[in-house]
Design brief:
The complex is a heterodimer of chains A (286) and B (194). Chain A is built from 13 helices and eight strands. Chain A has helices at residues 19-31, 47-53, 55-72, 81-96, 98-108, 121-136, 159-162, 172-179, 203-219, 230-239, 250-257, 262-269, 277-282; strands at residues 4-9, 34-38, 76-78, 118-120, 146-149, 183-184, 224-227, 247-249. In chain A, helix 10 (230-239) links the parallel strand 7 (224-227) and strand 8 (247-249). In chain A, helix 2 (47-53) packs across helix 3 and helix 4 (81-96) packs across helix 5. Chain A is globular, with a radius of gyration of 18 Å. Chain B has helices at residues 16-26, 38-42, 53-62, 65-70, 73-76, 82-86, 93-106, 115-129, 134-144, 151-166, 180-189, and strands spanning 2-7, 10-15. In chain B, a hairpin with a 2-residue loop joins strand 1 and strand 2. In chain B, helix 1 packs across helix 7 (93-106) and helix 8 runs antiparallel to helix 9 (134-144). Chain B is globular. Chain B starts with a strand and ends in a 5-residue tail after the last helix. The chains are: A alpha/beta (286), B mainly alpha (194). Chains A and B meet through helix 2, helix 3, helix 5 and helix 9 of A and helix 6, helix 7, helix 8, helix 9 and helix 10 of B.
Chain lengths: 286, 194
Amino acid sequence: MEKIKYGYYPGCSLESTAIEYNHSVHATAKLLDVELVELDDWNCCGASSGHCTNYELSLALPARNLAIAEKAGLNIAVACAACYLRFKQTTHDLRKDKQLLQKIETIIEMPYQARTETRHLVEIFAREVGLDEIKKRLKKPLRGLKLASYYGCYLVRPPEVTQFDDPESPHLLDDLMSAVGGEPVDWTHKVECCGGSLLLGRVDIVKKLTDDICRAAIDAGADGIVAACPLCMANLDTRQTTTKMPVIHFSELMAIALGAEPKEYSKWLKKHINNPAPVLKERGLI
Amino acid sequence: MTVQLVTAQGKESADTAFYQTVKEKSGARLERCYQCVACSSGCPSAYQMDYPPHQLLRMVQLGLKDRVLKSNTYWICLSCETCATRCPNNIEIVMVMDTLRHLALAEKIKGATKLPLFHRTFLGDVKLFGRIYELGLILWYTIFSGNIFKLKGLMQDALLGVKMFSRGKLAILPHRIKGQKAIKRIYDLTGKTG
């Protein structure tokens, strides 16, 4: 099999508030022989603030990164669900409107044909590496660990743009967690919004939404919530008020199950506000 | 064209051009809305909105420009896409919300929220460094928004900041990309942002 290789776009959060996500993505990719080449001199995708204020800006910022990947002849692997949608939306809109594509090409001063494909790491691990291959490589199955897989908004919506999974009842992340031996729980808040872009602007709304999500996961009997986005992670881990629910990136769990070294994962497990280590220890996983 | 309407608020001026503008700019098939309320039923932030999404759409159809643009609805909208995904008429409601934001910024409407300030601070950060400098964004927004004077919230955030800082989750210095000129060019050519 040819080695899976992607242009890696970590996104701004993975250099700072979600540094543990970045470390664990690299660890998991290495254990699964996926080559991630960080895009040269990438820039911020503009996130919600981009599309809320200026449509062309919200296309041009991602387009520069997409053009960098196109030049390198690589498709893009993203870690953040918000960056994921911005890249997918840009590609979607510019493939439909050739005139707009030309305009954006002039603005970014780089050749760009909207050919680059964008995939989230969950898709790459679950669909390209494959669940069977992951099962073959398991060193420490996450036996007995009950997990609430949280998809949030931008992996699954708008479905015609992201084409990730069923928008109301997705299962790709659950499949991935089953493959590493965990027990996904059936729960109500898989695709409910965490408050995303209101993180700093309306903390009261974010607190209500994250509390609802955390309580739903507890009601379903989960030991922890699995996130696939640094912004969902930041909201859920830091803004829950009435619960102390551990929230963990899917890649942290995958790396542990695939045999990452204790000195490696202990570095990133320490970074959480609600410590996930006690429940992992209780299940004999670390 | 301006027409007089009698609404629950009494007599109100309606601007029919407003409906056309929003429809054209957003590309949304606004005429299809028949008030089934699927959008508002699933909206996670409707409970904080002056008007829930289905009411706002009706007000746009009627051309109630002033009341629409002075509402907080489109700033409180999380762009979570739940409404648009569930709309039986495939109305691109999030594009409508984006269009209202763009119009409000262009017309310098004094909004009911500080969210435009957040977006401006965020994009200013990106313009300056090419990437988000999270610590800077948090500090600037806390100062500019006046949240620095809200002691209870400030203490909670400061405590959280210390926890994150001690865990090495807040990079102290910004990362400046090499292509800063390219980013500046993108900002210059895509026009003014709020």
